[in-house]
Specification:
Layout lengths: L2 H10 L5 E2 H8 L3 H15 L6 E6 L2 E6 L4 H4 L12 H12 L3 E2 H8 L4 H9 L3 E5 L7 E5 L1 H9 L1 H10 L17 H5 L13
Antiparallel strand pairs: 1-3, 2-3, 4-6, 5-6
Length: 199
């Protein structure tokens, strides 16, 4: 069995990418061996004969189109990247890095209200939300499958932003249970809460 091929197939099989623990769990290969295999694959795909590269964004490994070839693919899919404002991109990066983060969590990292940005990103199809079991039942935000499709074709904008963004979110692992504000705790559940206004 070619272990490197196994790891390659696993990463290739998902749009969302896989983190190290997921690969180890599925393959049952030793952690250090998986790390070595990922490094080998990354080096191989950097060769100019390949149009894609293996990169780690946040905690997940995934295949991305190389910047040199992105223009050939850009016609195939809708790309709202250029239309995103700096504040929308900042919020998008925070959610991408901190899965299932609440509105309070995003605002704790940014230090400012993020209601409009979250709503706009939901309307654009890049974010989705789901209520979680926490006091006040707040929404937890995460990126959509459309997000992965869009940024697969334009990975440079996002991956470099994620890697260079020095927001507090890099130092803090946002726990949805810990990011619920007192305001969220007091808010009763009602039909009105199901509206598209971010909480």
């Amino acid at each position: 069995m070619n272990k490197k091929a196994v790891v390659e197939a696993l990463v290739f099989s998902t749009n969302k990418g896989l983190d190290l623990s997921q690969i180890v769990k599925v393959t049952e290969f030793p952690k250090n061996e998986v790390i070595s295999l990922l490094e080998e694959l990354s080096e191989e795909y950097e060769n100019e004969e390949h149009g894609i590269s293996l990169r780690k964004v946040g905690k997940k490994f995934s295949f991305f189109t190389k910047e040199a070839y992105a223009e050939y693919i850009s016609e195939l899919i809708k790309r709202p990247v250029d239309k995103l404002t700096p504040t929308q991109l900042e919020v998008l990066a925070i959610v991408a890095k901190n899965e299932r983060v609440t509105k309070t969590g995003v605002e704790t990292i940014r230090g400012k209200d993020s209601s409009n940005q979250l709503l706009e990103l939901m309307v654009s199809g890049l974010l989705k939300r789901k209520r979680i079991k926490a006091p006040g039942r707040p929404y937890a935000y995460s990126v959509t499958d459309n997000f992965f499709e869009v940024f697969k074709m334009s990975d440079i904008e996002l991956s470099e932003f994620l890697e260079s963004n020095d927001s507090p979110g890099e130092e803090k692992e946002t726990d949805t249970k810990e990011t619920v504000s007192s305001e969220d705790e007091k808010k009763p559940e009602s039909k009105e809460e199901e509206s598209e206004e971010p909480e």
